[in-house]
Amino acid sequence: MRITRMVAVAAVAALSLGIAACGGDDGGDSGDTGSGSKSFEAGSTMEKLNKAQKITIGTKFDQPGFGLKGLDGKPAGFDVEIGKLIADELGIADDKITWVETPSAVREEKIEKAEVDLVVATYTINDKRKERIDFAGPYYEAGQNILVKADDTSITGPDSFKAGDKKVCSVQGSTPATNIEKYLANKASQLVVFDVYQKCVDALTNGQVNAVTTDNVILLGFIARNEGKFKLAGENFTKEPYGIGLKKGDNAFRTFVNDTLETLFKDGRWEKAWKDTAGKYVDETPTPPTINRY
Amino acid sequence: MSVLVDHFDVFASGFWLTFQLCLLSAVGALILGTLGAVMRISPVPPLRWVGTAYVTVFRNCPLTIVFFFAAFGLPSLGSNADFLKIPGLSSIFSRLGIDLPYFRFAIIALSVYTGAFVCEAIRSGINAVSPGQAEAARAIGLTFTQNLRFVVLPQAWKAAIVPLGSVIIAMIKNSALAGFFGLVGDLSNGAQNLTSALGEPIIPVFIGVSIGFLIMTVPLGLLLDRIERRRAVAR
Amino acid sequence: MKDQQTVLYDAPGPRARRVTLIGSVAAVLLILAGGYFLIYKPLDEKGQFSMDLWGPLIDPNNEVFPLVWERLGEGFRATLIAAALAIVSSLVMGTALAVLRIQLKSLVKRRYEGVATPLAYFLRGLNWTLAGISRVFVEIFRGLPVVITIFFVASALPEFGVDLGDILWYLVIGLTLYNMVVIGEILRSGMEGLPGGQREAAEAMGLSPFQTTRMILLPQAFRIMLPALISQLVVVLKDTSLGFIISYEEVLRVSTQIIQALEDPNPIQTYAVVGTIYILVNYALSKLAEYVQRRLARGRKTRALPTEQAPPAAVAPDIAAASM
Fold it and tell me: What is the rounded radius of gyration, in angstroms, for the C-alpha atoms of chain A?
């Protein structure tokens, strides 16, 4: 009985894979890119990737708006779009990209071991990380903010947690969780951490916590998806420039990615990517940040 | 290795919190499990069904799902598990009384899940009492309750003590999951925080956490082995 | 169970039957009322029964229904693959561990007379050390939470330069480390529970200790312990869900992704469906274990082995220990 079950599952899966393969027609935006049309300096990473006609990009699979594995099993979001655009500039088509999940804890490691060529994963540029890898970008500047219920006026910013009676939720091992700890009077009775922000929002809805904190763009996504239920409390209180992680010392590649980003900023593809994904729920379009070529 | 010294407070407080969680959950599981076992042998069929359903569901469900329903299902039922804010206990177990309910949710998840196994252990104990004992008790005119209280249960407890011990050991280990469901500061959450947020090396942190758990599980395991061996000789 | 129960109280007379009936009705009413007021009503008030939330899971006409189930199917497949690999490798390694520990136990007793004294001491020391190491290995991995073991394997192995590529293997290794120890101990206690005559007879026939273990003890231990081994399969299946910690895409992690990708996130509904499937599969496995146990018990009775009493008692604690 178990065997028939497994066979059945396998059959269904095989069938559905077939269907998915037939239905894949979203290669529209990579139209003008003939793979041979690009040429790069011999021996560079760009040439290697272009020749191999494949690239491995790390992103998050559980970050709505930036990198979230969709119902079709493919990641989608702003980070994913940026990754696709860079691949495009390398002359690599969308379907030749291998997406690898890179949760916060393993990003540096995956880059160091060359398991991924690039990491585009809401990856805040900071000096500690620069010791192990290099950053291109930033391609977006986020800032940490606080999400509260729409009718809540008691929380106006991180300082509201100093009194010790407000509870806040964030994600395990993330920078926002570490940042907010400074403002807490008593960590044990004020802080909750889960593995994804959706769970924090559930806890906020049900009233176990008073606030959720992380980068503003992620919070904006939740505000938009739950019309009228939530709002941001006050201004961003940190700056989180998102960069693209790549192997340390590969300066030619870093320059290439930086140049690519600047091109994307100028020709409107960056803005389109933003509006299609994370910016879908936000009225104003942000101005592109300045590339930091350190 | 310096992590163990530098962050000793993380390990110590983590151990203390995990220990509290285990202690309270063990009590909860024993109560629930005994109730379940009584239900399963009661003469009232619907109670038997409830007992059986309880054991079937929780024995076959991954603990992760049980934890999920404690942490997110209970709130949708409108409960913050406030009934666990027991006045006297809250002064000893400080996490029990605070507003954030995840310590209480963790206790509920572990108790309910472990209770099903406790129920099975007790039932296996009752089954180990030879039917002649109960027959004899009935022959001398003891009622159902008297029979259970004076003849069957005392013997069943003895037979059940080793399986019960194993169940509790398993529960202590399972408590590690609480750190992934909103409990901040227990051993596993502390370890995660040290490695992923503070970037401490993994191996020393792992050793610290392991010591924390092994302090609880290994002595209990050795004690059970001893009891088992002594009983084996007696048999 | 049935027998035990009927001896606890008399066959009910008319009065007792009436009391039982009233009790039953009262219990049913109480359960229904409790279910309605404590569970159905609050859930309904929060709109948890809305088709927006259930539709993607149960309504084939819903536009995302096929996508959701395709992903869930992938998740279940990943769960089954991990569980199958873990149980097979745990069986192999567990058997090896059990044999090793049994062999070491008899070797430790050996005094190596007739060998040069220093060599004898060396061999005895070696045996002691190996026996000690295997014992410590067992105690550590039996006493550690599987979550922690998996987490550690996945983060420490790469640090040592062991790169297995697929996360699946870290999960399998983590699960194996725990389950091989448990299975090893089940088999070992099975072998030690066999009547001494088995071993003595084998030795009398001139079989070496290893041959005795392999040809006489192990097959019988497997037979006696089969139910416990099947129960262990349930444990492995449940424990694969811990893979979410190292972001292995088993069914629970896939569920989390689905929940977030849906227009209306429906954690409670999705987890309820996945939990139900888990329970059904595992329930079938537990029933299989019970069936095998009953069959074995019957077989044993007809052959009237002298150990008739011992194995069930020995099995019971192991099942309890193993089934979590």
Answer: 21
* Strand A168-171 with A211-215, pairing: parallel
* Contact check, Cβ <8 Å, B65/C20: no
Chain B residue closest to A128 (CA)? B199
ipTM tops 0.90: no
Flag if C283 and B56 touch (Cβ within 8 Å).
Answer: yes
Is the distance from CB of B159 to CB of B124 less than 8 angstroms? yes
CB-count burial class (<10 Å; 0-12, 13-18, 19+) for A1? exposed
Token pair 């194996």 is found at: C176
- Torsions phi, psi for A139 (to 5 deg): -105, -5
β A97-101/A55-59 pair status: parallel
Domains of chain C, start order? 77-322 (1.10.3720.10)
Size of interface B-C (CB pairs under 8 A): 184
CA dist A75 and A58 (Å) reads: 11
Protein fold of A35-142+240-281: D-Maltodextrin-Binding Protein; domain 2 (3.40.190)
d(CA A217, CA C310): 65
Answer whether residue B137 shows pLDDT above 90. Answer: no
- Which CATH number does the domain housing residue B88 bear? 1.10.3720.10
Give tens-digit pLDDT for A259-288. Answer: 989 888 988 889 888 888 877 767 677 788
Peptide bond into A138 cis (omega under 30): yes
> Angle formed by the axes of helices C65-109 and C251-261, to 10°?
150
Q: Which helix (H) or strand (E) holds B103?
A: helix B102-128
* Per-residue pLDDT tens over the stretch B18-71: 999 999 999 999 999 989 988 888 878 888 899 999 999 999 999 999 999 998
Per-residue pLDDT at A122 exceeds 70: yes
- Residue B166 has φ and ψ, to the nearest 5°, of -60, -40
pLDDT score for A211: 92
C279: number of Cβ within 10 Å: 18
Query: How close A62 gets to chain C, by Cα (Å)?
Result: 6
Burial C164-183 (b: 16+ CB within 10 A, else e): eeebbbbbbbbbbbbbbbbb
Q: Which of C103, C120, C53 is nearest to C218 (CA)?
A: C103
Identify each DSSP E strand in C63-114 by its residue range.
none
Measuring CA to CA, which residue among C2, C7, C1, C6 is closest to residue B134?
C7
| CB-based contact B197 A177, cutoff 8 Å | yes
List the domain range (segments joined by +) for residue B101. 16-186
Into which CATH architecture does domain A144-232 fall? Answer: 3-Layer(aba) Sandwich (3.40)
